[in-house]
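Quick start: what a row looks like.
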Amino acid sequence: MPALPSAAGPGLSALPRVLWRLARVLVHVAHGMAVMALRFPSLDAAGRQARIQWWSAGLLRAIGVGLRVQGTARPGATLLVANHVSWLDIAALHAAVPQARFVSKADVRRWPLLGWLVAGAGTLFIERDRKRDALRVVHAMAEALRDGQTVGVFPEGTTGPGPELLPFHANLLQAAIATATPVQPAVLRFADGRQRFSPAVEFVGETTLLQSLWRVAGAQGLVAHVQLLAPQATAHADRRALAEHLHQGMAEALAGGLENRP
């Protein structure tokens, strides 16, 4: 096992806080698994969404992350397009938009405990190393959108550093264009008491899930900001032009932030 404390992580003085928060996370995950196994099969869509929202907000609280939401989720069929910062992104978005089904890389399904919960919430998994798999996922997304569902995607394809967006991949946007479904951008930012973009949440490079858990649990004053922007029409759009337009608007919102302070 790698040494968890590092230059970017909490020191020994934070050890009691880290261990307490990680213990709370384990208990919360265990509770979520029990709910998924015992309660989910008998719940209707509204009941499942209420549980997803409660559990996602609870996970953030357990690990010491606050939540601030600006804007309103569009009801009905919607393609939710978000920037990708951390493994915390889906929890933050589900706390604000519990009806969303997300498209996630297949590796997440293999994460201990969390992967099973994510799959149970209706996640669509994509093998990013297989180009043909994108077509399968686009068809699955289009079917969900035609059924009036909300589907969430991270068009960057991987986690970025936070302040700046990575280039957007346009492939998955085709599902919204083919079904003339509006797209709603969602801008994520994780701040702490001193910085608008907290380095404790960075999940890039060779950072493992365990290392990220340690850093987040040791941080102080972390807040997840979710900004839901105005929905945009997609009928007859060119997917690459749409991706560029969304990228520009989200980058501007990210630069402005939700507030003028962390």
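That is the whole record. Confidence is low (pLDDT under 50) at residues 1-7, 258-262. The radius of gyration is 18 Å.
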